[in-house]
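Example for tutorial group B:
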């Protein structure tokens, strides 16, 4: 059976007009896994599923609690609570901070809706079995706990960085992957991008550094994502292509890519 990846969103921090923040839908052997649900991703997910309550989702993985990766998980919670409350809880694999984000967005008088809509499993963790996949995850450097994701199944291995700086663990995460989805924020490509107090350029990647990870890990295809709004994505791609000589993809909203 074919495997596909649908891009739900490709921006970092906040969405550009017509785009969304980080999110992907992976379909393999009839199993559907959502990877991150940042600002504006849920409408595209619902369109891909053909359901306004998220019917057909087998699991959700959220790398960390920053809203550009997690906030539309709350919209999914509301859709299931009001429109599909009788459905079984959706397995949710995420750091505990993601639950804190959901709690902060909920009315405390409403009780633990998240605990009824989602069946939470903590990340990072050494090993889970979800459908046809073995889910491996590892801590990667960011301002908040972030779990890099590796999904292994017969005939397919996909790795996803979430948000990260350069770290030796990335080579293990992406080793021989069929596809690596790497953030390439390229935070300071624009000279007018303001410095933020406490900002650390070593806690994000750009095209060159993402390509260095892909080359060292021997990945077959590299997809760049999490672009800083207003960036020249083609320039980021050129920097990556100068180092990585395999197929290079740029995440683009609504694109559906055949993985095998």
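The residue assignment follows.
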């Amino acid at each position: 059976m074919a495997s596909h990846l649908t891009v739900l969103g490709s921006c970092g921090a906040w969405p550009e007009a017509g785009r969304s923040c980080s999110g992907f839908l992976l379909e393999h052997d009839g199993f559907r896994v959502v990877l991150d649900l940042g600002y504006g991703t849920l409408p595209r997910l619902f369109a891909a599923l053909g359901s306004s309550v998220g019917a057909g989702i087998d699991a959700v993985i959220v790398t960390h609690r920053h809203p550009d990766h997690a906030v539309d998980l709350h919209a999914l919670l509301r859709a299931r609570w009001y429109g599909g409350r009788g459905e079984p809880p959706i397995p949710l694999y995420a750091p505990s901070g993601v639950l804190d984000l959901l709690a902060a967005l909920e009315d405390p008088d409403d009780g633990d809706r998240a605990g009824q809509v989602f069946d939470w499993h903590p990340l990072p963790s050494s090993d889970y079995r979800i459908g046809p996949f073995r889910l491996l995850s590892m801590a990667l450097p960011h301002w908040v706990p972030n779990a890099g994701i590796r999904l292994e199944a017969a005939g397919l291995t996909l790795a996803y960085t979430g948000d990260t700086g350069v770290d030796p663990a990335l080579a293990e995460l992406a080793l021989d992957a069929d596809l690596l989805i790497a953030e390439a924020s390229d935070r300071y490509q624009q000279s007018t991008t303001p410095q933020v107090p406490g900002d650390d350029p070593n806690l994000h990647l750009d095209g060159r550094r993402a390509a260095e990870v892909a080359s060292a890990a021997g990945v077959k295809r590299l997809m760049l994502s999490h672009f800083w709004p207003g960036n020249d994505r083609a320039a980021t791609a050129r920097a990556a292509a100068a180092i990585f000589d395999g197929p290079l993809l740029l995440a683009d909203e609504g694109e559906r890519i055949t993985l095998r």
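The longest strand covers residues 133-140. Compare this with the pattern of hydrophobic and polar residues in the output above.
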